[in-house]
Every structure is written in structure tokens, then in C-alpha cells.
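Note on ligand handling. Small-molecule inputs were canonicalized before submission; formal charges were left as drawn, and no protonation-state enumeration was performed. Where a ligand contained multiple stereocentres, the stereochemistry in the source SMILES was retained. For pyridoxal-5'-phosphate, this procedure yielded the string shown in the input block below.
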Amino acid sequence: MGEKIIPYGRQSLDKNDAQAVIDCLDSGWLTTGPKVKEFEQKVSAKVRGRFAVAFSSGSTALLGAVAALGLGPGDEVITTPLTFAATANCVLACGARPVFADVFADTLLIDPLSVEALITPATKAIFAVDYAGQPCNYTVLRSIADKNGLVLLSDCCHALGCEQDGLTPAQQADIAIYSFHPVKHITTGEGGMLVTDDDVLAVKAASFRNHGITTDFKEREQTHSYQYDIEELGGNYRLSDIHCALGCSQMEKLNDFLDARERIARVYDEAFVDFPGITPLRRSDGHANHLYVIRVNGGLREELFTRMRSAGIMVNVHYLPVHLFTLYKRELGTSEGLCPVAELAAKEILSLPIFPDLTAEEQFKVIDELKKNMTMLRSG
Ligand SMILES: *Cc1c(COP(=O)(O)O)cnc(C)c1O
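Structure output:
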């Protein structure tokens, strides 16, 4: 009946964002100019990492991370199956092998004990994912990494603005990667960022972003030199000034966005206290609330998903376990039973709409439809 569809996530844009883009178009600098630097500085200040390198997407920033680390054939990287495939794809892309650890049932964050059990002489890195926006246990992961001489990476694409005991993932991992896709905390349309405290890794990532060229255009202009060298393979993974102008404008609102997401998450928390058949994931302080995920008990997730979609509520499933995709089964020989906790969770999880512009009325409709349908389904 012409009812408005409620997505699970959506960007928040205003006149200031539009003006920032227009100002950039008027400035004469369309790419690799002042806005890229400004955006990199804003993100690095927010997540408290020394160096930030903007990329054309979160996924290309992930490629930049494995390239900067020099990962390749013979290397293993331990990660989680409950993530967007890009986390593991970047490992496959460089010829290294993703190894899947299991997760905790109540948070769906990677389980450090499971990580530790998978370490072999070939292991080079741990790739943690701050699933739904909740920081992993970085204290424990850091000590496992240090004890075994491994690199600790953080796929922070869900978690711009998250903290744990006053520390950001960028302060605890060797490299943290962010995404600015429209469903994420802030958007540049497409875009990503690699953050690290290590100057060598930052220089390598910046070079990978630009065909492996070892100096940047400005340096050559300043020294009146046409000389440059290429030491490693790279590509064009740059983010334009136009995108970064939007990113700078969006960063002004990040704290408001985080507050709005926390407010929405609390309304859901309260709505489902003791509601039979629905168990929200456990949320800690410092959660960035990219996703609000419930577990639907009693084998009713499929039916509930269908009914919510019919009601115009675009619930979603994050994620299908990565190790069960055809590509992974074929390349790695992975199969059902490898990560039982994650596999069971994947059959029960449902992501509810959460984004700063979700109105109280819309959220009420989501909760109402969910409870109504769950009650009907449970009474058979
Ligand atoms: C969004 C996302 C990415 C990829 O980001 P893009 O900017 O869409 O390329 C990678 N990992 C996770 C966990 C994500 O959610």
C-alpha cells in the first residue's frame, strides 16, 4: 500500500555535505590534492593512529595492508568466517592462505583461544574483525600476536569510533582498515582508509595505492624532477579530492551519528529484554553499533526474515560464513563443521535496521512487526 521501505542501513547527508563537494569542484583540485590530506588527518586524529592512507574503498585498503606487509604464497592469516568476504579475499588475492578461527556465541567476535590453537610456523598475521561495531578483545589478541611474532590486523570497517578501555583498534593493532561505503558510519560514496603507527608500512601502502611509484607527484613537482622508480607492483587505488571533501564534511558529524546509533541500539535492547525467542548479541561499552544483530531461536529465522521483508523492513543476514563459499571450499578445502559456533550463528542471526536517520516511528514499526510475527510463529 505504498508503504515506505525501511533499509537496514543508509547514509545521512545534508546541505553542508553537498556544499563541500561543490566547493571541491570549484577549487580546481579534483584528485590527490588538499582534501585527501585533510581527510586523512581527520581520520587519523579520530582513531588516534599516526599515519592514515586513503583508498578507493575499504576493500582496496585491505589489499594495501597485505601488500604493505608483503604477505604471499606460503603465509597463513588467521581470521573469522563471520565477516564480509573482503577480509579473507585480500588474503587469497596475495596468494596467502586464510585460516578460519571460531567466534564467541554471544558477541560473534573472534575467539582468541581458537586463534591460538591454529597458529603454525606458517602463520604471519591475525586478522580481527570488530563485528557489528564491537571491539574484539585486543589486549589478549595483542599478547598472542607478540608472543608468536605475528602481525595484528584490524578490519575496522564496522567500527569507526569504537573504543575499549580508552583505546581504539588503531592503537592496538599494527594496521586498522576502515570503509566509507554508504551503510557505514560516515560515507564518501566509496572509500576506505588504512591507519598505522608504522611509518614504513604507511609509505608502502601509499606507494601501492599509486602503482608502486616511490615518490608522489607533489614531491616531484617541488624538486623539479621527472624521475621516479617502481619497486613493487601497485595500482590506482586512490580516493579523489571530491570523495575526501565529502568525507571531511561527514567527519564533523561522526560523534552525532555514533550517539544516534547508540540511542537506537538501547531502544532495541529494552524492547527485547525477556522477549521469548529473540536474543540480541551482547553489547559492550564503546560499541560503534554499525549493526544491531539478534539471534532468532527455535529455527524460525528464515520465516521471520521472509515476513519482515514482506512488511517492507529490509532485515539482513551478516554474514554467510566465508569458509562455506564455493571459492573457499575449492581453494582451501574448507567445509561445514570447521567453525561450529559461527555456522550455527549464521542460521540464527538477523540484522535489524539501524542508521542515524531511522525515526522513532520507524523503529517502533520494526519492533512491533518483529514481536507480532515472532509470537505468531512460536504459537505455530
Ligand atoms: C564494508 C566492509 C568491507 C569492505 O569495504 P568496502 O568499502 O565496501 O570495500 C570490508 N570488511 C568489512 C567487515 C566490511 O563491513
